[in-house]
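$ ./design --mode recover --in tokens.txt
reading tokens...
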């Protein structure tokens, strides 16, 4: 169907929307934990977008699926590391916001 809206198109558009939402959260928020979550939303959007375009043409290609699964594992590990760094920074400084962002919020 040439004019129909395929399910893969919906997945691709949802992935693009997640990338945009995550990028906005990354730029707009100064709290470090919210930035980590926004970065994860960007990653989820990329995985969804990549998976949508990997399944075009009738059958799913196993290579992009393997890359997506590997990316999810790496993203989980990077998230655990980032949360550990945010907790260490919050314990050391008493705030989960970077000093540069605190100055920018006061002005």
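writing sequence...
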């Amino acid at each position: 169907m040439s004019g129909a809206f395929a399910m893969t198109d919906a997945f691709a558009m949802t992935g693009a929307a997640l990338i945009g939402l995550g990028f906005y959260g990354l730029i707009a928020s100064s709290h470090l934990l919210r930035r980590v979550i926004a970065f994860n939303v960007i990653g989820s959007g990329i995985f969804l977008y990549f998976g949508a375009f990997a399944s075009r043409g009738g059958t799913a290609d196993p290579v992009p699926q393997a890359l997506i699964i590997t990316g999810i594992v790496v993203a989980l590990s990077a998230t655990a590391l980032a949360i550990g760094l945010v907790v260490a920074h919050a314990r050391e400084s008493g705030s989960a916001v970077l000093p540069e962002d605190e100055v920018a919020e006061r002005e």
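exit 0
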